[in-house]
Amino acid sequence: MQDSIRFAMIPSATTQPILADVDVLVCGGGMAGVVAAIAAARAGASTLLLERWGFLGGSATAAAIGQFVGWETSAGRRVIGGIAEEIVDRLVARGGSDGHGQFVMSTGHHMDRVPYDPEVLKLVLDELAVEAGVRILFHAAVLDVSTAARTVSRVGVLTKAGSAGIRAKVVVDASGDLDLLAHAGAAFLPLTADEARQPATLMFRFGPIDRSVFDGLTTGELRELADRGFAGGMLARAALHMSPIAGTEDGWFNIGRIAVDATDPFALSVAEMEGRRQAFAAAGFLATHVPGCGCGRLVALAAQLGIRETRRVHGAHVLTGADLRAPARFEDTIALAAYPIDLHPETGADLHFESLGRDHAYEIPFRCLRPVSLDNVLVAGRGISATHEAHAALRVMPTTMAIGQAAGTAAAIVAAGNAVTPQIDIATLQAKLRAAGACLP
Asked: For site-directed labelling of 302, which of 147, 167, 214, 375 has its Cα 20 to 30 A away?
């Protein structure tokens, strides 16, 4: 628990002081990381959560995605539960969400979703993490990593007080871009010659919106408007997708398209500026041409781009699109998911959206969380071991929260036994996940 975390400044062999010595270190406080940290702490592990912003949530808050999608099959069978559902309950209780609902995508597909207020979510995540006993270190980033005998022995971090080292029995890389694993020299899965990295987007808040008018637009009318905006250069893609904000007349719009390698610092810098340009152009189109939006304006920009895809770890199993379609069954399943294969091209108006069936769910094995080259590191979030095609289905936040709960629970089990991740007893892990409300076969 929190009291067992040591923060004494002890000299190390690398001249960096040791800031903490813990059971579990989680790098990245996005939705996967915060759920992993909560799960590890609840399981009795001393847990430190490292986050570069001054708040938790990652893409859910800093990128202001505004909704969680992919909770259930199209037949309405829920496949995500546990800590993720606790977060929804807290959001609803604080007036930051109306809870589970449905919407129609620009493709015409019906989809479940939980819209939320990113500002309320920040507070909810603070509360859940602190209640679990997670120690949180904001405004900190991974600086370097030391490895020995297939383990991460020390993680160097840059904080407001300078650089320091952290030791942990088990490390969870939930950074999205897998920065820790990159520093550790881990192997990643490359794109093939016919694949292109999914583009980013910059969310923007717009309002007020006359919802009685906007929500009354048919799918065909929205499509015609979006096509017109794209053809006229006002919209970066042919979509007018909006997530309403509970208790307000505003909504978050996800209608940008920015091709970028977000691991390249200069490319990312250019992309952030392009995102702002696209957002203001789109807001002008909304106010001028879209019914219900005539009195609105751009109210706020997300603090960062929403990144769909960067690094994917080479794990003990590589999950494929064929695995999802079958669906393949695994003895070491640690999560279910049902979100379709949703591939955004780098350029153009449309996207590739493949529904997998009315009551179709697929399984995610524990081996996808295990890098092939390291035995005390797990991956949580969109960077698990999967092909580009499978990643397009796995990347949504309810799924990454389910993966995070499994990663954090597993990390605590491994740390308690002074073991390594390949030695974990899968039956024990699955039993603990079920007891904590996770959905498993």
From this structure: 214
